[in-house]
Write a structure and sequence with these properties.
globular; 7 strands
Length: 166
């Protein structure tokens, strides 16, 4: 039996009533990312996208005032990009300059991993309908998985609203 601790993944699938190009652009274009990144009530004042294999994007979600109003930065470092099909990146928490920081140092639960690999799969359902599946790998507990999944569902709700023009 392995001594390695159990790891848990987040898997979220969503179908959008939009062509694949619009969903792809929502993940790759700075202006688009700023419209949806962060859970409900959060804004995204920064999305410096370096969307290429080997590139690192810096994104920020700003908490609403009633939740403290703090800025939470992440880097997304891309290892694989297959246009209109797949994005693979590692997410790290960071400061405003893109320097990595530990989740605990910014007030998040200490058990959140320093690095979280992500894979996003894009699939055309119909001409104006696209499915994406987002997998986040390596969480140490089901509680952290539930927290992350809830945030991702809210992020995708915001994305759905922008791609259908609501």
């Amino acid at each position: 039996m392995s001594s390695e601790a159990q790891k848990y993944n987040v898997v979220v699938t969503r179908v959008f009533d939009a062509p694949i190009e619009e969903i792809w652009n929502a993940w790759s274009d700075s202006d688009q990312v700023m419209r949806w990144w962060g859970p409900q009530g959060f804004t995204a004042p920064v999305a410096n996208m370096d969307f290429r294999e080997g590139g690192t994007s810096l994104v920020c979600m700003r908490a609403p005032i009633e939740l403290g109003g703090q800025d939470l930065y992440n880097t997304w470092t891309y290892s694989k990009i297959v246009p209109m099909q797949r994005i693979e990146f590692v997410q790290n928490f960071a400061d405003e300059h893109g320097n990595w920081v530990s989740p605990a140092s910014i007030g998040l639960p200490a058990e959140i991993p320093f690095e979280v690999p992500h894979v996003i799969i894009f699939r055309v359902i119909e001409e104006n309908q696209t499915e994406i599946t987002i997998t986040e790998y390596g969480y140490p507990s089901q509680q952290i998985v539930e927290m992350s999944a809830m945030g991702m569902e809210q992020v995708l709700d915001k994305m759905a609203a922008i791609v259908v023009g609501v």
